[in-house]
Fold these 3 entries.
Entry 1:
Amino acid sequence: MIKLRPYQLDIARAVTDSVMNRRGLTLSVEIARQGGKNELSAIIELTLLTAHMGKGGTIIKASPTFKPQTVISMERLKQRLDDWGFALFYRSELGYIVHLGPARCVFLSADESANVVGHTADILLEIDEAQDISKDKYTKEFRPMGSPTNCTTVLYGTTWDETTLLEEAKQTNLELQKKDGIQRHFAYDWQEVARHNPAYAQYVESERARLGEDHPLFRTQYALLPIAGGGRLISNTQLAMLMGTHPRLTSPNSGETHIAGLDLAGQEETTDRASPSRDSTALTIARMTARQEAQILNIYTWLGTRHTDLWPQLLHILKLWRCRRLVVDATGIGEPTYDYLYRQLGPRVMPFKFTQVSKSELGFHLLTTVNQGNIRLWSPDGSAEHAQAFNQLRLARSQYRPSQTLNFFVDPSDGHDDILMSIALCAWALKYPPKIATGGSYD
């Protein structure tokens, strides 16, 4: 049988008390990632279904997506029903409803396109991963499901930014708590979870070392600290960490391994080929050390040059540096350049296609690499390339979306982000490290 931890019991008691005594409270719950939120939810559902199996009633649970989140929640409830001896007594219906006698739990998707109007919750309304659910979808379609019976509502999740549904519910609950003393918001960060699970403590400590304590994912998923909806991508502390002490090089030292990131200008054709308003094609070259650190040695930029005209120059530079891993922006018109370089250099060339999701992953990886001290620019030398790189890193903005994805860019009013993106692509190459060179030819 499952034994709930003390912090889970506190939440379970508050929820069941509000349900059984028809208090109709709206509760918000933040538990650090992998701290037992989903298990708690399943046990609450099991308890309430058991309590209502004689008279009936409906629990509704909403998740951001049907697959996999809703399906996983439904299967977890079935497993707990099996564990508690109800295997012969519950039944499934329509692929999203679980019955225990006349009581039932209805699992719904809160995706924007999901049609959920018409359902009614009279036992409990649960909103899982509420930070990822649209406030408009919740307010218009889910919240009214519990209004006819003054149904208790629970919003579960982890922190994200200050604009999410969960954060809004949290702030409302904190204000209400001050007025009447009834606890409506429950928050248990990784340290609280770790008090009851030493193995979890070891895991999160390793994540903190890997990501860095100020990484957005560590702050939100484990420390439960919200991030600002927008602002600088890289802090002053991180900028200082990016500044190396090694010199800039114009050609490689023998026996070293080099990686690169290539960001291609978005347009090849314009009436003003050298317009300063246009992005450049940017190539970042870095030395990869034995400790998997990327020491940026040189940055090349081309403004207003057709991609096809660049191919011989790019190939010459990459062969000069004997680059053993190159990540290329292969989005849209960048694909022919990737194809050309792949034909010439083989699988050491890797494509990167920019989408909302992949760019978010790229940004988070860049922050992780910076926090680990694994990417550094050459020592300031007064060069235009160093100044441009530092300026783009300094001016880079972050935009955190409710879907827990990150967009990063330099505002057009501040300049360009071509070198920033080439540095990020170079950092991405560290995810797929080539073997450290031991001399010999560039095969």
Entry 2:
Amino acid sequence: MNSITDSQSKFSLLRRVPFYYGWIILIAGGLALFTSAPGQTYVVSVFIDPMIEDLGWSRNLYSSLYTGGSLTAALAVPFIGRLLDRFGGRIMLTAVAMAFGVATVLIGSVASPIHLFLGFVAIRALGQGSLQLISTTLVAMWFIRRRGRAMALMALASPMSQAAFPVVAFFLISTWGWRNAWVILGAIIWIVLIPVGIILVRRSPESVGLEPDGVSRPMGSPSAAANISADHNDWTLGEAIRTRTFWMLLFVGLPLSMIGTGLTFHHVDLFVTKGYDVGLAAGVLSFMAPMALLGTIVAGFLNDKLPNRHIMASGHLLLATTMVWAMPMSLVWQAFVYGGSMGFAQGVIMTTTNVIWPNYFGRTHIGSIRGVVSTAMVASSAMGPLPVSFLFALNNDYNTPILAFLGLPIATAVVSLLAVPPRKSTAAVRPEVEPVG
């Protein structure tokens, strides 16, 4: 009897919040994304010069350790996804925050290449992989009909983190040295994320007596329902991988990771070879961030009203158009059109990716499913710069790798349109909402 009373008390407290508690979960997910920065390339890159200068290592060794660590880290993400399905976001966010902080602190005492390699494996798996997986899964659990706009709002934390943390890391390195800077970053992770995990996060709306989106079923309009598989029509990982749609969406998610990372990694050199100065290259790179933010917001609202596969196809066609535009560009305004288009396309594709998987395969096993997907995306991202560099070396012209990869986003646009929501046998399950392509 006491346990029932305690449970009802907890539900009552959550219901007293003057708005749907899912928005608190969205903020928690945004904080997880924001604080994932020490595991992201934009923070690690700030440490390259002071670390190799102090340790006496080559830039190639550092880069190789980072690439190898990133690829190895990708293998751990499916395991995190299965644990997320089993234990829920509250336990996993708290545990990952504790481990991520420890890994970050330990990099501050690095003394050998193998130590740094293991450190990169840990911060990439826990920061770049796990925190992104946990945050997107949390929002997917708490929102269905408003999932697109909720994902878009949470994703605002990523450009904010990218703007803030490199400056913070540079200040910490300049003031206390790179070793202490890693320790302080680890402490920031603990201070921000552990209380968020323990105090704010709950596994699902149903676990606290609420409904997704904060409304009672039946929910939504027919146009929004076209993207959604009913909750009791959720797919396990084993069931999902036996569908054609799973492999289509997996393929669709790879080009942006590879092409976007490859062109961004070589961004400055790409602009220099086309006759632009370094300052303009930096300005265009900065311009990409607000345009990606705009693409995220636009895609978030469109994905709640239109078939997700159409939005995905549009994003990839825009990416292909951007690549074509990059080849002859020579004027300043053309450079900014390229940067704005690339940023907008990235925002559209990434937001749609976060929405389409739970919309197609449900919420119950989304951690396991997205864990496998994240492995492929992280691996393709880590490999992106290498083929671009190799193809550029053939004739010292970035038009060569651009042409070589141009067919990929065009192909994924076509595959996106063919990736209709999967259907379970009506004998096995009777869906509340029939997904319509």
Entry 3:
Amino acid sequence: MPDAPSRLMIQRNGEITIIQFLDRNILDEANIQQIGEEIASIIDAAGDPKLVLSFDNVDHLSSAALGTLITINNKIRAKQGQLRLANINQQIYEVFTITKLDKLFNIDKSTGEAVEKLS
């Protein structure tokens, strides 16, 4: 399904790429794979990737989605880039805390705060 519509809204703010998820529930394996591939292509195209992932619309994440986030984080670090997560609701943040992913990722309250820290 290479012609599937994007599951992401992508904005550029100078050298920073802001990615917002369009799905409220990121649970379906095929969608997660597509999201991972779209973000990987953005990282591959950037010399020094600076990404903000906004979870503004997201209510639920599967464990496969968390695995994809870890893969994205590793890919960015391999290119000496930076990744920040923003707008994570309390329920999802608790999952990050329980799994200790809050220690792996830089998490900000808002997209604006994340962009400021990357600038």
